[in-house]
Every structure is written in C-alpha cells, then in structure tokens.
Design a protein that fits this description.
The structure holds 2 protein chains of 2 kinds. By secondary structure, chain A is an alpha/beta fold. Chain A is 39% helix and 20% strand. In chain A, a hairpin with a 4-residue loop joins strand 1 and strand 2.
C-alpha cells in the first residue's frame, strides 16, 4: 500500500471543503437509496464529521495498534444507526468514486490501495459489530418522569425495557422520535439501580434541536432510544481513597452517579461534592442533593455561585471555592463541567500540589453528538 | 546433430526448452571452424518465431484477464449498484441537500436567537424582582427600626425582642459552626498530609511524587523556572491519563473536529 500517495489523494478531496462529502453522500444515496433514512434531515454536521473521521483514520493508517481499537468501537457504536454488514461495500464504492472524482491523477494503483485499505477498515468494524451482536443494537426506554427544574433544565427518569448495563460516570447516547437520527450523549445521574431507572439531566441549549425537545416537548409516556454506554469517568473499585467531586453546570450528573455508586456499593469514604452554577436559579438539583447530604453522613456538599451577588451560597468560581476549603492533596479528584471550568479547576489543584494522576476530568460541551475517534464524548 | 534434425523435420511441433538443452550442432568442415551456419540460422529463426508467439499470446491473455476482472467487479457492484449515478443526478441531489441544510440551519439560528433573547429578558426580570424584593425588605426593616426608635433598648413587645435575639443567636451559631468546620477540616487535611508524608518516609517509592513537592521552599515553587516545567508536566500527565482510561491519547485536533 502506498500510504503517502493515498494521503496526497485524500488531501485533494479534503481540500475541497464541503464539496467532497457532499458528492460522497449524494453518490451513496443515489446508488443506495435505502441508506438515506439512516441519516438526519440536515446533513451539514454529518458531512464535517465523516471527513474528519476519515482524515483521522488516514492519519493513523500506519499505526495499526492505535487504529484497531478505535475502529472496533466505531463498528460497535454504528449498530445503533442500523448499520448492517451489507452497507459497508456501498459506502466503500461511494468513497472510491468520490476520491476518484476529485483527483485528476487517479490511477488504478490508487484505486487498488484505497479499496484494500477500506476493506480492512470495514472488516475490523463489521467483526467488532458482530461480536457485540449478543447485545441489542439499541434499547428502548420509557420516560416515566419529567420535571422542569428551571426555565431550561429538566430532569428525566427513563426506564429501559431491557436490561441496560453501564457504569457510574459513563455517558449514554440517546435519540428521540421527535428528532430522528440525531443522537446526543448524556450522563446518567445515578449508578445502575435494581429497578433499572436512569436519571438524565438535560439543559436546553439555545437552538439545540435535541436538548430543547427533551426539555420542552418530551413527556411521561414517550419513548427514547439508548445506545451503548461510553466514557471514562469511573471509580477505581480497588481504591477507598476519599473523594473530591467537582461539578460545573450539567457536570453534576456524573458526580451524582459516583456518589450514588458509593452509597450502593461502597467502600465507605468521605466525599466532598462541590457544585458550581452561574446563579442560584441554575443550581437546579438542590433539593435532591441536600436530601443526599442529610441521608449520607460521609457526604458534604458545597454550592458555589459565580454570578449572583444576592445569593447566600458561596461566591466565586467553583475552582476558587474548592481551593478555599483546603488543599485536598490526599483526595482522588473527579471534575466534570464546561471546558473552561474544568481546565481552571485542574490548574488550581495542580498548582496547589495535587498529583495529576489522581485528577480525572471530563469536559461537558453543550452539545455532544458523538464520540470523536479518540472516544471522547465531547463535541 | 541428431536432435536438431528431428526438430527441423516436424515444423509444426513447438520448440521446447528440453530441445534446446539437448541440441548439438554439427562441426563444420576442417577449413571453416565452428558450427554449420545453416543449422544455426534455422534454429535461431525458429526461436524468434516462438518468442514472438509467446509475446502475442501473453498480451492476449492479459487483455482477457483485465476484461474478466472488470466483468467480475461489475458483477459484484452490479448486485448492489445497478449503475453509477449520473453526474447530473449527483448535482441535483447535492443542491437539494444543501438547500435543506440551509433551511434547517436558519431555523436553528432563529430559534437560538429567540431563546437567548427570551432568556436574557427572563433573567433580567428575575434579577430586578429580587433586587426590588431586597430593597423593600430593607426599607421595611429600616422603617421598623425607626418606629422602634432605638436598636434593642427601645421599648418593644417581648415577643419581638426575643425573635430578634433568637435570630442573632442563630446567625452567631451558624457562623461559629462554619468556622469550626473549616478549622476541623484544615486540621484533618494537615493530619492526612502528615500521615502521607510519614508513609512516604517509610516507603518513599510508594509516595506519589507530587506530595513530596510542597516540601520545597516556597520561593522555588513560585519561580519562573518551575512554571515552565509545570506546563510540561501537565501535558505529559494529561496524555498518560487519557491512555490509562479509554485508549488512544487525545489529540487536540480531533477533539474539536467532530
């Protein structure tokens, strides 16, 4: 395989911006009309994602050890879109047609190399998808509770119809019939419960099609579809080190799940939970968090508001407030929230001498359509 | 030249590698050294014929293979793709898709503007209401104080005074409790930190490196030099962190790309 030639060829297609993906999808839908219904109405984001994903694969094509696990995860994850093994050759044919269309120096050698490379990629993905075949491709879940907590935040209780396994701290992709084919990631706010209920916190993003539908339109009795869980914030089952949990905004959900896991499974330890919000109004889950604090003697909760001078809660950015309460050098630290909040808090903890390997964090972007090739669920 | 002679008799038979290996030319007459010219010429011309026949045969076969390969490919694709879509169809569909995308994007943008404006109005209204409420409350308190004339020595009903006193006491106790908690917390943190340091002394290998860091003089911590190494540390550590968790290291490029 002549990888430099393939990269040069791919660069030509990628350099056309939107043209090449547009050509690719038109080619795919015209030659295989049945694949159109697997995609959302608006293809704008999809086009960006396809070529950046392909670019990542091309960039790593000589690092098979790194590429294979990524492709396997992609293959498993594509099952929820209804992708079948039969779809892979169709995509391959359209991909080759696209690469040929945008390269005046297209040669039979290039065609052969690309077709070999694609066959390999498709094989890894279909194999991984096949290995996951004992699991459903997606889980239907009934909405059994829907509470509007603020003007734009809702707390949903959903119950999957079949057993759904995940770990506290992971994220779940979900889709609603109101916005077909748009999958977004959300973090359950509880550890797996015997009754299967999952608590989902949703903030309606301005103009966000999925989040606003989940907050304003979905109600009890509606059905959501869940994809397999993904993500990496997780407690070390071997450790009983005391915890420092720091949540910014909607990052509260995975932190609450970690607290719930300790309450259910232990081992017992001290847990300090800091929750940052812009103002008191945005501290949407206070009643339930206070209930947890009352019930669990090992849990201490501190709320911080960054932009609410009238509030009786602690004033300041959550990172600032955390440092006000101690150096926390001995704690295992988990942080989830918006990007700036996460990096600010990390920096403060590290400057105080906190060991980096004990700080775990996840950035919660406002919209999380899917994992990148790095399996980050951020946008 | 037994072999060559039998070869020349049956012209239609092909020349084989074995024929050439066993070929022996007859020595020419004493006056002229070497082989008999005619025999050599005859064999050479037969070899040339053979070679050209091979070449044409080979190219015919290559054409055939190509044709068959193309037919096979067509058959494989043909099972799924009846025929590649025409350029015109591709253009029409692409334009239609782009139009649809633009409408959706416009709708989303419109909804984004509407909601963010509505939210700003809402937040402003709530903020003003809270401020007003605060001001009214304050005015009421001032009025009450004025009516009362003095602070605590003024004649009041017992009930009012005891409520005020209780409130004061509650506030005092709350602050006191807060202070005690903060003190206790820092005491315990120091204790834990001590324990870890002791543990580190007993088994320095088991001690996380960063715990040893505060032992440095404070001047060194804030020095410009250590700031530079700190940045390096973070980068290295964040990479190892991502490794340990799910898999491949996060590259900045793809993090923002999808």
């Amino acid at each position: 395989m002549d990888i430099p030639a393939m990269r040069a060829n791919f660069a030509k297609a990628a350099a056309t911006g939107d043209e090449a993906p547009l050509y690719f999808y038109s080619h795919l839908f015209l030659s295989h009309p049945e694949t159109r219904q697997m995609f959302p109405v608006s293809m704008a984001h999809q086009r960006d994602r396809l070529f950046s994903a392909l670019g990542d694969v091309v960039a790593r094509v000589d690092d098979v050890d790194a590429l294979v696990p990524i492709l396997q995860q992609l293959g498993r994850d594509h099952r929820k879109f209804g992708t079948l093994a039969a779809h892979y050759p169709a995509v391959g044919a359209s991909l080759l047609a696209t690469l040929e269309h945008f390269d005046e120096h297209w040669s039979p050698e290039l065609a052969k190399d690309w077709s070999e490379a694609y066959t390999l990629v498709a094989e890894v993905m279909t194999l991984a998808a096949g290995e996951a075949a004992h699991e459903p491709a997606w889980w239907e879940a009934d909405v059994v509770g829907h509470e509007r907590r603020t003007i734009d935040i809702a707390v949903l209780q959903v119950r999957p119809r079949a057993h759904y396994d995940y770990l506290a701290g992971q994220s779940v992709s979900l889709e609603s019939d109101l916005r077909p084919r748009l999958w977004r990631y959300y973090s359950p706010a509880n550890a797996p419960r015997p009754d299967g209920l999952i608590e989902i916190h949703v903030k309606a993003r301005d103009g966000g099609p999925v989040s606003s539908a989940l907050v304003r339109q979905v109600g009890v009795g509606d059905v959501l579809r869940l994809g397999p869980p993904i993500g990496h914030l997780a407690l070390d089952p071997e450790s009983d080190r005391d915890l420092l949990l720091i949540a910014g905004g909607m990052g509260l959900a995975p932190m609450k799940a970690l607290v719930d896991q300790i309450a259910r499974k232990g081992p017992p330890r001290r847990v300090d939970l800091f929750i940052g919000a812009r103002n008191e109004d945005q501290a949407y889950d206070r009643a339930d968090v206070r209930r947890l604090e009352r019930e669990k003697p090992w849990l201490t909760v501190t709320y911080a508001v960054s932009d609410d001078k009238l509030s009786s809660l602690e004033q300041g950015n959550v990172g600032e407030v955390v440092m006000r309460h101690g150096p926390w050098l001995s704690r295992e630290v988990f942080i989830a929230g918006p990007g700036p909040m996460v990096s600010d808090t990390e920096t403060r903890l590290e400057q105080a001498g906190g060991p980096r390997q004990r700080i775990h964090s996840e950035v919660f972007a406002p919209s999380r359509p899917g994992p990148s090739l790095d399996l980050e669920v951020t946008e | 030249m037994t072999n060559a002679q039998s070869g020349s008799e049956s012209v239609e038979r092909r020349l084989t590698p074995a024929d050439l290996q066993s070929l022996r030319f007859t020595r020419a007459a004493m006056l002229r050294p070497g082989y008999v010219d005619t025999e050599v010429d005859r064999v050479m011309s037969r070899l040339a014929e053979e070679l050209s026949r091979h070449i044409t045969e080979k190219s015919a076969l290559r054409d055939r293979v190509r044709a068959l390969e193309a037919a096979l490919e067509g058959a494989v694709e043909g099972a799924a793709v009846p025929q590649p879509p025409s350029e015109q169809a591709l253009r029409i569909l692409s334009a239609a898709q782009q139009t649809a995308d633009n409408y959706v994007a416009e709708a989303e943008e419109f909804s984004r503007q509407m909601t963010s404006e509505a939210r700003a109005l809402y937040e402003e209204a709530v903020r003003q209401a809270r401020e007003n409420a605060g001001a009214i409350l304050q005015a009421a308190q001032e009025a009450a104080a004025k009516i009362g004339g003095g602070i605590t020595v003024a004649p009041r009903s017992d009930e009012q005074r005891s409520v005020a006193e209780l409130q004061e006491q509650v506030a005092y106790l709350r602050t006191f409790g807060q202070a005690v908690r903060v003190q206790l917390r820092s005491y315990f943190e120091a204790l834990i930190s001590d324990v870890e340091t002791e543990w580190g002394r007993a088994d320095p290998a088991a001690l996380p490196q960063a715990v040893a860091r505060p032992a440095l003089p404070p001047g060194q911590e804030t020095g410009g030099g250590s700031g530079a190494t700190f940045v390096g540390n973070t980068a290295a550590e964040s990479r190892s962190d991502a490794d340990a968790d799910v898999g491949p290291p996060a590259t900045a490029g793809s993090r923002s790309s999808t």
